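Onboarding guide, step 5: your first structure request.
Type a short instruction followed by the sequence, for example:

Predict the 3D structure of this protein.
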Amino acid sequence: MSSSGRPWSLSLMFLLGMASEGISCPSRCSCQYLEVNCTGQQLQEFPVDIPLDTRQLILAANNISYLPTLELSFLADLVYLDCRKNLLGDDLDFTFIGTAKLVYLDLSFNNLTEVTFSTFSHLLSLVVLKISDNPNLVAIEKDAFANNTWLRHLDVSRTGLTFLDTSTVQDLPNLRLLGLSDNLWHCNCSFLDFITWMMESNVHFPDADNITCYTPAGLHALRMPAVEAQLHFSCLTQLYKQDYVFLCLIGFCIFFASTVAAWLAGVCAVYQVHASKGEEEEEEEEEEEE
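The system replies with structure tokens like these:
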């Protein structure tokens, strides 16, 4: 039995060997077992002929400006994608629709301008997301990471962000590390809720000394702990000019309404007096006629 089975096993090994030799590897890239590395090859476009069973794809330090959705969807087993230091822009919505197994994604040092719900909503297994060092990134939608509930490491440091809604990160149950340093944070009353969450959460903030306010001028370069106390005082105990205007309008409306109500009450009272006098005069006239 062993002698008859040996030729089949040898044939199978031979076929597997031929198949492995025939596996293509992108030009100017190196391929190992389930890994394709194209770092620093001055690639202008997404490489072709990537093995379909690739688990780890490294495209760092190139000049790629576009990630084709179709080609990426062929890499259904991809779990690690490194695209740092490229020219990727703001057209990433639905790009990762076919890479649902992706666990690690690095898009740092690119030209991202915004993150919407459609950007990463299909990455249900995502654990690490790095979008730092995108100086043109100025907006992250409130529900941008609503589907990324496994996210543990999120880095948005050194971008153009001035505001981040608290619910964007507060609703991530597994978040453990959040990079926020060297951004242009606008520390107004709308940002107080986020700063309070930072102080109370169990999330770790690396490079915390550089998480500071950029505006307004009175809070420039101040760290978040110090800013929280000042914002609590200025936002919760003091009134701004628009608040006084609003209160004056409310007061005027109340005064006007009360004046109108008093006038109507007076008119009704006078009307009742005249009506009662008229009834009395009619009764007197009837008595005289009798």
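Each response can be followed by summary notes, for example: The two ends are 141 Å apart (CA to CA).
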